[in-house]
């Protein structure tokens, strides 16, 4: 029997859904996932009429630089950051940004914006010739240094989250780093992120990923080096990305 294009597409979607990890379980309500701790950010807007979620953009962030586990990221996205609490924070004064999700170093998942809404995470950006990525994307922040390695707990949480997003947003057909949608302006998550392992774990089609990142020589995390504070870096790492 000859399969139509729609039939083959549905079969592929079922195959992808069949390999969902256990931590993809959870209920969706109004674009909020029950598996995440909800913290409402005021920094969002409506998606354009007719826009659907088609892309995931991965970022990296830590506040202050190289420090993990505090509440500064939450406060930044909620517009309640105390700029006097650390010298680095002064340069963030007036910044209005958000992301749909943050994955902490221990795997805890936070959600700041409904996936039905437009978070302010990518800034000036383009994916395969289409601009304004915020209009049709989900932003996911991985707590970590740009270019540095990420924790196994984060990898596991990310795999589950991506599977859940595919279930809630069936038109999702792409994933990229901030570095890929804003090349030359942004470089996160950087060389420490293992794209090849992500593709193997999700079993998402290779065509959904940025060109070249799945090459064995370029996708695996490159050797990191340590800066004078003992923090793992892979060249020019920054901790707080800005749109």
Task: Report on the architecture of this protein.
- This protein is an alpha/beta fold.
- It has helices at 5-17, 72-78, 152-168, 178-181, 195-202, 216-219; strands spanning 28-29, 32-33, 37-38, 44-46, 55-61, 101-103, 109-111, 117-119, 126-127, 130-131, 137-143, 175-177, 225-226, 232-233.
- The strands form 5 sheets. A 6-stranded mixed sheet has the order 3-7-6-11-5-12. The chain has a two-stranded antiparallel ribbon with strand order 1-2. A two-stranded antiparallel sheet has the order 4-8.
- 40% of the residues are buried.
What are the main properties of this structure?
single chain, globular, alpha/beta, 6-stranded mixed beta sheet, two-stranded antiparallel ribbon, 243 residues
Sheet having the most strands: 6 strands, mixed
> Globular, elongated, flat, extended or rod-shaped: what is the shape?
globular
Overall structural class, as computed from helix and strand content, comes to alpha/beta
Number of E-type strands: 14
Radius of gyration: 18 Å
């Amino acid at each position: 029997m000859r399969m139509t294009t729609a039939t083959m597409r549905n079969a592929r979607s079922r195959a992808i859904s069949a390999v969902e990890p256990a931590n993809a379980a959870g209920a969706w309500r109004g674009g909020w996932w029950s598996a995440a701790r909800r913290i409402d950010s005021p920094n969002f807007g409506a998606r354009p009429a007719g826009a659907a979620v088609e892309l995931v953009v991965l970022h990296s962030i830590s506040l202050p630089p190289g420090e993990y586990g505090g509440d500064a990221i939450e406060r930044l996205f909620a517009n309640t950051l105390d700029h006097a609490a650390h010298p680095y924070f002064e340069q963030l004064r007036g910044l209005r940004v958000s992301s749909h999700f943050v994955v902490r170093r221990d795997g805890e998942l936070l959600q700041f914006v409904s996936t039905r809404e437009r978070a302010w995470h990518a800034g000036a950006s383009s994916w395969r010739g289409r601009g304004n990525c915020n209009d049709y994307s989900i932003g996911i922040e991985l707590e970590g240094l740009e270019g540095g390695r990420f924790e196994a707990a984060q990898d596991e949480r990310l795999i589950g989250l991506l599977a859940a997003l595919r279930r809630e947003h069936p038109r999702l057909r792409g994933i990229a780093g901030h570095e890929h949608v804003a090349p030359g302006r942004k470089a996160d998550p950087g060389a420490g992120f293992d794209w090849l392992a992500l593709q193997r774990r999700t079993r998402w089609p290779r065509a959904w990923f940025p060109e070249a990142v799945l090459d064995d020589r370029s996708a695996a995390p490159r050797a990191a080096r340590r800066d004078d504070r003992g923090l793992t870096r892979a060249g020019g790492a920054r901790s707080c990305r800005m749109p």
